[in-house]
Design goal:
169 residues; mainly alpha; signal
């Protein structure tokens, strides 16, 4: 059943130009199930370096969602550890991923949708939703709000990118 859902999601997204190849990205994401969310950032960085940019965007945003859930679920963690790692990886890995991803806003929105579907259908064993429902809900709502905000700012983002010499695809 799980495999069938992933295949259907992969086929549906594979036909959309510019969207993360959900089948590949979902298969990659399964390798990181249950691991610390920093693993997703490392994988996204490697994918970017290998030229698999659409897969990198999917893995990065899945990692971001899961890292935010992890931090919200465990507020007792020292700020100089996981929170600092999150901030550092978000800057180091997130900057090149976002420079690419924001160049095609419709594809980015489809990828964010695919990330949220994947996360809903493949719960994270590292920070289980059953154990941390408030953190899970908060992180998911945050990503949905981020997506909604981006959807309303297409023209502004395109203008800013052009002014900064970044490609709009």
């Amino acid at each position: 059943m799980e495999r069938r859902r992933l295949l259907i999601a992969g086929l549906a997204c594979a036909s959309l130009p510019g969207v993360a190849r959900a089948q590949n990205a979902a298969a990659l994401a399964r390798e990181y199930q249950g691991l610390h969310p920093a693993t997703y950032y490392v994988a996204a960085d490697r994918l970017m370096q290998a030229g698999q940019r659409d897969d990198a965007v999917f893995i990065f945003y899945l990692g971001q969602l899961r890292f935010r859930t992890h931090l919200a679920a465990r507020p007792e963690l020292p700020r100089d550890r996981d929170a600092a790692v999150f901030a550092s990886l978000s800057e180091r890995v997130g900057r090149p991923v976002n420079e690419y991803a924001f160049g095609d806003m419709p594809a980015l929105l489809r990828t964010l949708d695919a990330v949220m579907v994947y996360d809903r259908e493949n719960p994270d064993p590292f920070t289980p939703a059953a154990t941390y429902p408030d953190a899970t809900r908060s992180a998911c709502e945050g990503m949905a709000q981020f997506r909604t905000n981006l959807a309303g700012r297409f023209d502004e983002i395109r203008r800013l990118r052009a002014a900064n010499g970044l490609e709009n695809r």
